[in-house]
Amino acid sequence: ERNGAVDGLRERIAADLERARRRTRALTDAVDDRDLTRQHSVLMSPLVWDLAHIGNQEELWLLRQVGQRDAILPETIDELYDAFRHPRRDRPALPLLDPTESRRYVGEVRGRVLDLLEAAALEGADPLTRDGFVFGMVAQHEQQHVETMFATHQLREGEAVLTAPPAPRRSADLRAALPAEVLVPGGEFEMGTDLEPWALDNERPAHRVHVPAFFLDTTPVTNAAYAEFVAAGGYSDERLWHPAGWGHIRSAGWDAPQFWRREGSGWVVRRFGVEAEIVPDEPVQHVCWYEADAYARWAGRRLPTEAEWEKAARHDPGTGRSRRYPWGDEDPTPERANLGGRHLGPAVVGAYPDGASPAGVHQLIGDVWEWTSSDFTGYPGFRAFPYREYSEVFFPAPGGRSEYKVLRGGSWAVDPVACRGTFRNWDYPIRRQIFVGFRTARDATEQN
Ligand code: AVJ
Ligand code: FE
């Protein structure tokens, strides 16, 4: 006799895998074979690498590890799709599967995975398969590469090939009614999770953190606000910049967010091959950590720490509990957050009142990833699971300095399966091809 809860879990896994694959197909079928195999930026893989890498990770974890099956193709391909063996800039020169072979391979893997899913034990003691964890990990992995492929498309020159309905707008009145910042009172909260079944290793374990009172921007920093910083000479005032950031913007010649171009007295932005005037009320996108840090200093503020961000996003002052999302424990919906690549960009600030936190912080989930001031490290009691290369190899060596800053909240391109109040992303502080913006904070002087 079958167990209804486990059948429901199998259906959910199959739906999450299928939703990821629809996105993968849309992004890889949108361009011709030449575009699939060429490199659009040295920062990115050819799309055909992402495609077969998605299938290869799925085969390694689900078919070979869980299912104990033999390799579908000669095992020499594993090495080609091992991200640690070949940096992105070298991938176009590898003897990769061609587009036809790649599509056949990922389709073959998926067919066998769906067979395996029917029979897999999802309730046992093994933490790899319990609650379907490793299936969820593979769905999240594919969706993370979907976001990476969106970034590749954004960097691609040439005709637009992706289209989507524009993100929702709100009336200016409603936006103007939002306070600029919200007070988060001081005190402890529970950071990270032991409960979220598909949380990745770096989100664990749950632990209590004391966060002094602080003020946080109600919404992400907008294009209009960022353009003021640019117009005020922010990019030529060395005092605003972290020394490494100053050196970087000078040598790279950056004087505005990536994809912005001056036109007359204003700015146009190129998005997926289409140029348009910047929308003043949209969150700014494509700024690196150093740019976010300099803006905050110019504004007399600072970036929030990762703990501050998570407390604002999860702490329920009514119960003292940490919740899954700013709005509560229920899954994201299109009314609560701009996720899943439904639109090809962020929505204006104030567009998701149903997604606000109890204190009234908006758009913490979706729209743009948000830079935090924090380095990427393991929580107290961290244990790598199920592989060191997901998170642990990116932590600083003991006594060493971190190379990565933490990003929170998820962008419009992120699928809900890979987005929650505990989810942690990270990147180098000079990177800005990802769908990233920020909001600012300041200390509150209140006693706590
Ligand atoms: C967590 C987004 C930094 O894309 O490099 C994909 C996710 N890990 N394949 C990345 C990931 C392995 C990772 N980030
Ligand atoms: Fe990967």
Keywords:
448 residues, alpha+beta, 4-stranded mixed sheet, 11 helices, binds N,N,N-trimethyl-histidine, binds fe (iii) ion
Number of helices: 11
Bound molecules: N,N,N-trimethyl-histidine, fe (iii) ion
- Please state the overall shape, judged from the principal axes of the Cα atoms: globular
H/E element order? HHHHHHHEEEEHHEEEHHEEEEE
- Major sheet description: 4 strands, mixed
Mean pLDDT: 96
Q: Bin the helical content.
A: 25-40%
Biggest sheet strand line-up:
10-9-8-11
How far apart are the first and last residues' alpha carbons, in Å?
56 Å
User: Which parts are unreliable, with pLDDT below 50 for 5 consecutive residues or more?
Assistant: none
Per DSSP E runs of 2 or more residues, the count of β-strands stands at 12
Radius of gyration (Å): 22 Å
β-sheet strand percentage: 5-15%
Q: What structural class do you assign from the helix and strand content? A: alpha+beta
